[in-house]
Amino acid sequence: MKDKSKALEALLQENRVFAPPQDFVAQANANDAAIYDQASADRLGFWARQAESIDFFEPYNEVLEWDAPFAKWFVNGKLNVAYNCIDRHLKTDRRNKAAIIWEGEPGDTVTLTYQDLYREVNKFANVMRKLGVKKGDRVTIYLPMIPELAIAMLACARIGAPHSIVFGGFSADSLRDRIDDAQSTLLITADGGWRRGSVVPLKGNADQAVEGDSPVKNVVVVERVGLAKSNANMVEGRDLLWHELMKESSHICEPESMDSEDMLFILYTSGTTGKPKGVVHTTGGYLVGTASTHRYIFDLKENDVYWCTADIGWITGHSYIIYGPLANGATTVMYEGGPDYPNKDRFWEIVEKYGVNIFYTAPTAIRAFMKWGTQWPESRDLSSLRLLGTVGEPINPEAWMWYHKFIGGERCPIVDTWWQTETGQIMISPLPGLTKTTPGTATVPFPGIEVDVVDEQGNSSDAGYLIVKSPWPAMLRTVYGDPERYKSTYWSRFDDYYFTGDGAKRDELGNIWVMGRVDDVLNVSGHRIGTMEVESALVDHQSVAEAAVIGKTHELKGQAVAAFVTLKDGFEGTDDLMAELKAHVAKKIGAIARPEDIFFSAELPKTRSGKIMRRLLRDIAEGRKLGDTTTLADPSVVQKLMSQNDE
Ligand code: 6R9
Question: Which residues does the record give as ATP binding sites (predicted)?
Answer without folding.
Answer: 392-394, 416-421, 502, 517, 528
